[in-house]
Amino acid sequence: MKYFYLIANLAKELVPETRAYIIDRLEKRGAQCRFLSPAQQNKYGKHTPSELVPSETECVITIGGDGTLIQAARDLAGRNIPLLGVNRGHLGFLNQVSTEDEIEEAIEALTQDRYELERRMMIRGTVFHEGKPVFQDIALNEIAVTSQVPLRVLRYQVSVNDEYLNHYSADGVLVATPTGSTAYNLSAGGPVMAPAGRMMALTPVCPHSLNARSIVLAPEDRVRIGVSNSGRVSFDGDSTADLETGDSLAVERSGLETVMIRRKKQSFMQNLSDHLSGI
User: Fold this and answer.
1) Residues spanned by CATH 2.60.200.30 within the chain?
2) Confidence of residue 25 (pLDDT cuts 50, 70, 90)
3) What 3 state SS string does the chain have?
4) Which residues contribute to the annotated binding site for NAD(+)?
5) Domain 3-115+264-276 adopts which CATH fold?
């Protein structure tokens, strides 16, 4: 690889210094590196418009927390540019590089074309109002439906492939990908799934029932969630859409995927064990 693009959350501690270090190490190896100018950063905030990332880009390096990488995946969906995350956040399940030694090792491997790629499943959610689609977006982690009013319990009617499944009285209901299984889904008591898998987890959030359980679904399944009162759907905690009484949300596998650089020396099980032991 020779052409890189950096996406950094400059509000986080040590991120500006880390970005400067990565640029220096890349350029010393003859690589070219682009990133948003200060004016563009002020204009677009946490977003990176896809059209600003050059077509010759071979790898995007994100610097920050998992949220920085997820935002990059959403912004650049469909470009199939491999992503590598450098962790300057808290847990960093997605960001596999943290220390200077790991950064140095990763840059050397990338510039010498010694790396592996892993394709991550994404999901698509469509909001229906009076039977017509009115909003659609994608997610790498999860799509969640909650109340518009904090701490208000809603009643959700859930069906899978147009077959009734259950009613949930809960703070929310979410559909998570394998990548997102270690995020909101894990906090809500859902299962951990291997990131390269092709499946979805349907998980009630704080259900008011002892028999409400998370369910793992096949990638070809289609989930529909209806609300008894006004609700809100969020995509990776970023974009949102309001739901009125009678509206519904349909969630299914997206045709888009996120491509990630995977370090050969660290397996998913090792990464999971390291993070769970530190929670």
Assistant:
1) 122-256
2) very high
3) CCEEEEEECCCCCCHHHHHHHHHHHHHHCCCEEEECCHHHHHHHCCCCCHHHCCCCCCEEEEEECHHHHHHHHHHCCCCCCCEEEEECCCCCCCCCECCHHHHHHHHHHHHCCCCEEEEEEEEEEEEEECCEEEEEEEECCEEEEEECCCCCCEEEEEEECCEEEEEEEEEEEEEECCHHHHCHHHHCCCCCCCCCCCCEEEEEEEECCCCCCCEEECCCCCEEEEECCCEEEEECCCEEEEECCCCEEEEEEEEEEEEEEECCCCCHHHHHHHHHCCC
4) 66-67, 141-142, 152, 171, 182-187
5) Rossmann fold (3.40.50)
User: Domain 122-256 maps to which CATH number in 2.60.200.30, 3.40.50.1820, 3.30.1330.30, 2.102.10.10?
Assistant: 2.60.200.30
- Tokens for 251, please give them: 């969630």
Instruction: List active site positions.
Output: 66
- In this model, does residue 91 exceed pLDDT 70? no
Give the annotated binding-site residues. 66-67, 141-142, 152, 171, 182-187
Q: What is the pLDDT of residue 150?
A: 75
| pTM higher than the cut 0.90 | yes
Task: Name the least confident of 206-210, 220-224, 248-252.
Answer: 206-210
Both tokens of 253, joined, read: 């596998």
Contact 137, 111 (CB under 8 A): no
What is the chain's length?
279
Tokens of 271: 């990464």
Place of tokens 């950064």: 103
Start-end of CATH 3.40.50.10330 domains in the chain:
3-115+264-276
